[in-house]
Amino acid sequence: MTKQGAEALRETLAYLKGENRHRIVRTIEEARAHGDLSENAEYHAAKEEQGMNEGKIKSLEDKLARAHVIDPATITVDRIVFGATVDLIDLDEGTEVTYQVVGVDEADIEHGKVSITSPIARAMIGKEEGDVINVQAPSGLREYEVQEIRYE
Question: Transcription elongation factor GreA/GreB N-terminal domain spans which residues (predicted)?
Answer without folding.
Answer: 1-69
